[in-house]
Amino acid sequence: MAMKNLSFLAVLSLLALTLPLAIASDPSPLQDFCVGVNTPSDVFVNGKFCKDPKLVTVDDFFMAGLQNARPVANVVGSNVTAVNVNNLPGLNTLGISLVRIDYGVNGQNPPHTHPRATEILYVGLGKLLVGFVTSNGDGNRLFTKTLNEGDVFVFPEGLIHFQFNVGRFPAVAFAALSSQNPGVVTIANSVFGSNPAIDPNVLARAFQLDPKVIMDLQA
Fold first, then answer.
1. Annotated binding residue at 114?
2. What whole-number distance in Å separates Cα of residue 76 and Cα of residue 189?
3. Which of 23, 36, 171, 178 is deepest in the core (most CB within 10 A)?
4. CB 36 within 8 A of CB 87
């Protein structure tokens, strides 16, 4: 019986060591680097094709200009500048990316999710109210906090989260994400702005609203 218990503990220990590798968002690199290249092909891959290593240059790993403020003249009052495999090809297979977020006064990065990445946010300037909502199984709990310059906050992978500028001046934050191409799903845009539109009766029942209200939101 003691030997059986020991074997069971050994299996659990092995699973504990290997599961984090098995559930990683992006696969581990199988070479020093794999600079992404947009090669026309009928073959689809999970990521991008690799550039011939002999043709790789230092500029494949470089991007300038992220220190510059971005305009925020839009309905949400924010601007997200992404640095991912699409504009920094050296990130291909490396499992990481970066964004700069500029917020106007009362600007927000509205509720959204990143289906392929955990996000860690650093406030470089200003004051932000941030938060995320847990899954249904956890009771949809809200975790929220007001952040000041120099503060850091983590948004777990796939959970709905947001940031809102509660200061009197513009704000700036930088965030790292655990995917070369994390994706983004803005909740309001996806639900009320899908193409084609979701049947208003479906959304009316889901949100307990009159279908006419839903149609106005979809317009």
1. yes
2. 12
3. 171
4. no
Cα angle value 102/85/78 (rounded, 5°): 15
The residues spanned by each domain of the chain are 53-183, 185-218
Q: How many CA atoms lie within 13 A of 28 on its CB side?
A: 5
Q: How many CB atoms lie within 10 A of CB 166?
A: 17
DSSP 58: G
In terms of Cα–Cα distance, which of 75, 165, 78 is closest to 125? 165
Separation of first and last alpha carbons in the chain? 68
pLDDT (tens place) for every residue of the chain, 219 residues total = 554 454 545 544 544 544 454 455 677 776 788 888 887 767 777 788 999 999 999 999 999 999 999 999 999 999 999 999 999 999 999 999 999 999 999 999 999 999 999 999 999 999 999 999 999 999 999 999 999 999 999 999 999 999 999 999 999 999 999 999 999 999 999 999 999 999 999 999 999 999 999 999 998
DSSP string, 144-187: EEEE-TT-EEEE-TT-EEEEEE-SSS-EEEEEEESSSS---EEH
119 is in an annotated binding site: yes
Q: What letter would DSSP give residue 77?
A: S
Q: Is 112 annotated as a binding residue?
A: yes
With respect to CATH, is domain 53-183 assigned 2.60.120.10?
A: yes
Q: Is 109 annotated as a binding-site member?
A: yes
